[in-house]
Design goal:
Blueprint (H helix, E strand, L loop, with lengths): L11 H46 L4 E7 L5 E7 L34 H9 L6 H7 L3 E3 L6 H4 L15 E3 L1 H5 L6 H14 L2 H23 L11 H4 L23
Parallel strand pairs: 3-4
Antiparallel strand pairs: 1-2
């Protein structure tokens, strides 16, 4: 007696894909609405930050850097400038002070950061211009942190799944992993977000973000870093904080975004 061979049912898979596409469309609408409202509400603060940067260290006010976005597309990410101009020239001398494992760079008391830049980073206000990236469709309010192309090239194969989702200003790693030097934690949190993503998860992350940022600000306020200030030309030999002929260099492991 022959036994019937059961064939797997593939019907639900297209349905799940359609539902995911629909949810991503809602995510995009929420991004547009949320970023637009935040830009309107925060525009006076952003203008004040721009004036403070101009007054303290000159132009440029914004820092632009190429990052890897969804599906591997490159885009220009915006931030308020927090480092001295020409900061990339000091990077080789700081590599032995990298606090991260793996391809990411993290240095808690980076001497290239300006005085106002240190405050902007501690408060994550340097990330506010990325609201423009969200409106342009390059980023989302929530998602994995966009990596530098050089970092992305060193990621293990499984981590490339992170670009299946829009890259975000805040996210699981930005909230729960930014102070963890282990690259495995970075991988774990990014992949968990991709695999478990839902609109409810995004809303939970957005709700947690202000509290986490405030807690990190308070923790850093208690610290008294002893660093060489490269915003002082006397300490750099060649770094003039009023220069406008070059961007500052930052790294993917910046203080967490808005986070």
């Amino acid at each position: 007696m022959s036994r019937a061979v059961e064939t797997p049912t593939l019907g639900p898979r297209p349905v799940r894909r359609r539902r995911r596409r629909g949810a991503l469309a809602v995510k995009r609408l929420l991004d547009l609405a949320g970023a637009s409202v935040m830009l309107v509400v925060l525009s006076p603060l952003m203008a004040a930050i721009a004036v403070a940067i101009l007054a303290s260290s000159g132009r440029p006010v914004l820092f632009r850097q190429v990052r890897v976005g969804q599906d591997g597309r490159l885009f220009t990410m915006l931030k308020f400038r927090t480092m001295v101009c020409g900061a990339e020239h000091h990077q080789p001398a700081l590599l032995d002070r990298n606090e991260r494992l793996g391809p990411l760079f993290k240095m808690a008391d980076d001497p290239r950061v300006t005085r106002i830049g240190r405050w902007l980073r501690h408060s994550s206000l340097d990330e506010l211009p990325q609201l423009l990236n969200v409106i342009a469709g390059d980023m989302s309010l929530v998602g994995p942190r966009p990596a530098l192309p050089a970092e992305d090239a060193q990621f293990p194969a499984q981590l490339h799944r992170r670009v299946e989702m829009p890259q975000g200003i805040t996210g699981l790693w930005q909230l729960d992993g930014r102070n963890d030097a282990d690259f495995g934690k970075y991988t774990e949190l990014d992949l968990r977000y991709v695999e478990q993503w839902s609109l409810a998860l995004d809303l939970q992350i957005l709700a947690r973000t202000p509290h986490v940022v405030w807690r990190q600000m308070r923790a850093r306020a208690d610290e008294a870093p002893d660093v060489v200030d490269l915003t002082d030309p006397a300490n750099t030999g060649d770094a003039d904080p009023t220069r406008t002929d070059g961007p500052a260099a930052t790294f993917a492991a910046e203080p967490s975004s808005l986070t």
